[in-house]
Amino acid sequence: MQAWILTHPAPISQQPLRRVELPRPQPGPGQVLVRMRVCGICRTDLHVAEGELPQRIPDLTPGHQVVGEVVELGPEGTGELRPGQRVGVAWLHAADGGCRYCCSGRENLCERAEFTGWSVQGGYAEFVLARAGFVYPLPETLGDAQAAPLLCAGIIGYRALRLCGLGEAGQGQWRGARLGIYGFGAAGHIAIQIARARGAEVYVCTRDHARHQALAAELGAAWVGGAQAQPPVALDAAIMFAPAGELVPAALRALARGGALVLGGIHMSPIPPLNYDWLYGERLIRSVANNTRADGREFLAEAARTAVRTRVREFAFGEANQALKALKEDAIAGAGVLRAP
Question: Comparing C-alpha atoms, which of 126, 160, 143, 125 is closest to residue 45?
């Protein structure tokens, strides 16, 4: 099979991914083999390629937003999955199921978790192995390219919304809430749709004028400004998708008393010193770590109910390095996806 591998991390301008021919993997117990149709391009892939996240395995194949078709089942433990079924393969590849985090419904914090495209081989390839219990059957109402960004950008954005402290969906608690979004790429353009469907006003701070600010306005943001700009109202909560620690002080200063700032990335540049008065008034900073399968199932259901639509730019399979370069340069409005060869 054709696949992209990372042997040595390097700046994406040096094209660190290498296209190779590898044997087709064979599924073992509890595994399924999925033929990739599309794989979403995530900023986490960029962090891995450039070495901001340490490489976990040699000759790593990145990618963890896979939409594909089950082509082969392992000898046992594959549940009701069947060949020919369309599924999504996401970031959380497996959790141990027995630690104190897994046993308390927090498998996203499992210390022995495995991650697609980081600690196990990922989806920038014709085929990918997945744990049967960790794949998502996908509704046919969404096309392949539109579904791929939901599997990480969408799920992580959904978990970030949950951690904002504004209440549960469907109970009217979001109506009239003022939510800030810092950074408006793949996750931001999905999260705004969920937040607005719940009744929130959304204020977007992002540096790119031509693509990201225009898309935020198109998707109904109440206000759009630069990355360091002060929104015109105090925010009840804010989510930072931009991996830019220098934006944390600006986001804190924009929060109303009791507001939460949720950091939605797996990697962030250093956060500068904070004044205590920016935190005072029971303001809160918290991070998002991975996701649970329950997050994924609940998000996909809510996304279907609210008719979330992703804005997608497609790249040919041979353009993996170029796609990550475009992501780094903020040259993708919405989300990018890599097509199968």
Answer: 125
Report the pLDDT value the prediction gives residue 322, as an integer from 0 to 100.
98
Mean pLDDT of successive 10-residue stretches along the chain, which has 341 residues? 98 98 97 98 97 95 98 95 97 97 97 98 98 94 94 96 89 91 96 97 90 94 96 98 96 97 95 96 96 95 93 97 96 95 92
Q: What topology is assigned to 2-152+310-339 in CATH?
A: Quinone Oxidoreductase; Chain A, domain 1 (3.90.180)
User: Looking at the domain that runs over 164-287, which CATH code has it been given?
Assistant: 3.40.50.720
Q: Is-contact 249 274, C-beta < 8 A?
A: yes
pLDDT of residue 209: 72
Residue 147 near residue 88 (C-beta atoms within 8 A)? yes
Exposure string over 124-144, b if 16+ CB within 10 A, otherwise e: bbbbbbbbbebbbebeeebeb
Position 139 scores a pLDDT of 83
Distances (CA, A) of 81 to 36, 50, 291: 16, 36, 22
* Structure-token pair, residue 117: 């495209």
d(C-alpha 39, C-alpha 337), whole Å: 5
Q: Where are the domains of the chain?
A: 2-152+310-339, 164-287
* Angle CA 208–209–215, to nearest 5: 90
Give the residue from 259, 189, 262, 242 showing the smallest Cα distance to 220. 189
